[in-house]
Amino acid sequence: MAAAILTKKWHKVTAIVLASLVAFILIAAIFVNSYWSPIFSSKVKDVVAKSSDGLYTVDFSSAEVHVLRGTVEIFNIVLKPDTTVYNFKKKQSIAPNNLVELRVKKLTLRHTHPFLLYFRHKLDIGEVELNQPDVKITYQLNHKKDTVLRNNKTAWQKISKSLHSIHIGNILLGDVKFKYEDYSGNKLAISELKEMNITARDLLIDSVTQTDRSRLLYCKDIIAELNNYTGESPDKLYTYRFNHLRLSTRDSRLNIEGLSLKPIRTDAFFAQAKTDKFTMHLDSLQLNNFDFLSYHKYRIISASCLILHSGSLEVFGNPNHTKQLTDRVVTFPNVGLYQIKSDVKLDTVRVKKITVYYTEFNQKSNKTGTISFNNTSGRFINITARPAALQQNNTCNVDLVTYFMNRGKLNVHFLFNLTDKDHSFAYKGTLGGMDLKDVNPAIRPLTMVKINSGSLKQLDFDIRANQAGSHGTVRVLYNNLNISLLKEDTMLNSLQTKAIPSLFANIFIIKHDNPDKPGDAPRVTNVTYTRSGETPFFKFVWQGLLDGLKPAIGLDKETQEHTTAMVRQMAADKKERQTKRALRREKRAERKALRAEKKANGQ
């Protein structure tokens, strides 16, 4: 049938020409594959060595070039640092902080242009895919800022004699096995990640991009994604996890979804730890304008805004006060920033719909009480421990709106001094109206007082504090206050009302209204609270307010002492009366027995 088709001479000539052309292309492809593979291998090794100043070497078992498909396959790649060169650079104080080691079984380059490389010295690749790469990064703080030398050249300047430019459309790293070793602290910290995906887009090294600061590692965008990660704190007291993490260098944004921090069982935690116990959950965390390159190089954390959305923070005060060997001033926010031991600068932190719980165990009542601040939203301005930033502004302002015990609306403002050696701060705010019985879950176990009735109209406070103590003013407006004083019932494992002291308190001590009469000026009480070293931040703030609230309702220290003395005297008088009655009964019984004896003897 083929012979029938080739009936004319030009048909035969055309078929011969096409067959010759196909044969030529196949022969040329085979020749180029065998000829260009060693050229490609030599170019790659040369580029890696020159661009890293000899710090890195790359090797691979083989490379296959498929001209017709426009692909290159490289097998068993090993990129590793030359320790001799690294140690030499370290002595000169120009060694990088991060060292990278990469192992890949197979690397595929698609849409390559070998002739462009050979004739015009431009490496142009459409896509690079590394399947299941094994990455190891070692971090050691060799210097804290970029080193500038006379002969410090850009990557393009180092390779320009061999290549005019390098361009890669997409770099895909799937199912990355990642190991990170941090030698910057007192102990080696090792982190391992699995199933991480990294995509780098539009890598371009040429005379223009060599100074382009919008690119990270010469890439227009680098995206890292990680799902369902679980880790453990170095002290084994906490487990943390998140559902999804995404980092984009083009957007300078880090997003984390489903972030949680969970401690071990409560009794086991306090048997090992001297700190408060924290439990946290966040639906989402977003870090904007995050300087990833500074963090990668020097562990410097810089960002314009951190947004925490929907979640909870639970703080359980450590009840083992006798085990506290150091001052718990470290729990103050303006002290905790320095405990991070990292260069931090966050312009703004925004919180949205976060509920905060503070729980404390009272040794006297043998019970725990919890204070809650529900649906909290607000912002923190200027969170930093960076000396240069603190010279310009050494205060952190916090404005929050929350609902105390999920009832009264509370507006509060904090001002933290970030450089004061006494760790001073101030807080003031206003709590709106609520039924005072709603605070019983907190004050019953913590103060052993129960509110039977009462209506809060408004609470205003303005307090200044430091590590030594706090002072300020508290004004609380309320009506119809009635309370009960409690005692522990060990038999029933509950708190029972002390009837007589409660009655005495409500009649003679408690001020049931403020102001006492309509039209009178309301009472304002002064706060003077001395902090002990074992008192953490949350308890310190709460106790400062409580120190102002007690005298406002009549339970000032002098009155309490006088009342206690009167109650003790009443108890002593009662016991004396009971003793006298018992003696009288005893004498009557003796007389009765004597009469009975006389009667029996016939007297």
Question: What attributes does this structure have?
Answer:
single chain, alpha+beta, 29% helix, 2 domains, 603 residues
Helix run count: 13
What do the pLDDT scores average to? 83
Give the CA-CA distance, first to last residue: 161 Å
How many DSSP E strands? 23
Count of folded domains? 2
| Gyration radius, rounded | 38 Å
The 3D shape can be described as elongated
Low-confidence stretches: 15-32
Largest sheet entry = 23 strands, mixed
Note the quaternary state here.
single chain
The helicity comes to: 25-40%
Strand fraction equals 35-45%
Class per helix and strand makeup: alpha+beta
Question: How does this structure look, described?
Answer:
This protein folds into two domains: 207 residues, no CATH class; 273 residues, no CATH class. The chain has 13 helices and 23 strands. The protein has a 23-stranded mixed beta sheet that branches. The termini are far apart. About 3% of the residues have low confidence.
Give the SSE layout.
Layout: H1 2-5, H2 9-51, E1 56-59, E2 62-66, E3 71-81, H3 83-91, E4 98-112, H4 114-120, E5 122-131, E6 134-139, H5 155-159, E7 165-182, E8 189-205, E9 219-232, E10 238-248, E11 253-263, H6 266-272, E12 277-288, H7 292-298, E13 300-316, H8 333-339, E14 343-362, E15 367-384, H9 387-392, E16 395-404, E17 408-417, E18 425-431, E19 434-435, H10 440-447, E20 449-466, E21 469-489, E22 494-497, H11 499-509, E23 525-530, H12 537-552, H13 557-600
Parallel strand pairs: 5-7, 6-7, 13-14
Antiparallel strand pairs: 1-3, 2-3, 3-4, 4-5, 4-6, 7-8, 8-9, 9-10, 10-11, 11-12, 12-13, 14-15, 15-16, 16-17, 17-18, 18-20, 19-20, 20-21, 21-22, 21-23
